[in-house]
Design brief:
Pfam family, one: HTH_17
Number of strands: 3
Strand order of the largest sheet: 1-3-2
Distance between the termini: 48 Å
Organism: Aliiroseovarius pelagivivens
Oligomer: single chain
Number of domains: 1
Number of helices: 4
Protein name: Helix-turn-helix domain-containing protein
InterPro entries: HTH_17
Length: 77
């Protein structure tokens, strides 16, 4: 059975992102909004696997070729 909560290191490995990038997203200083996380005490950060999946799914851009063809047909690029 896989754990429900992942450490920051495990979340980084799971998403393919660096721990430092996830930390920057948690700070909320940039234009990107990061995945939902839990803070336990002062330093312990945990991510739910489902929240990571939902966040990654929200970043899906679709088929680039199809989007480009649709833009060309509609005349907006």
């Amino acid at each position: 059975m896989e754990p429900k909560y992942l450490t920051a290191a495990e979340a980084a490995s799971y998403t393919g992102l660096s721990e430092s990038y996830l930390a920057k997203l948690r700070m909320g200083t940039g234009p990107q909004i990061g995945p939902v996380y839990c803070r336990i005490g002062l330093r312990a950060i945990r991510y739910r696997r489902k929240d990571l999946d939902d966040w990654m799914d929200s970043k899906t851009c679709g088929d680039v070729v199809a989007n480009r063809e649709n833009a060309l047909i509609g005349g907006t690029i």
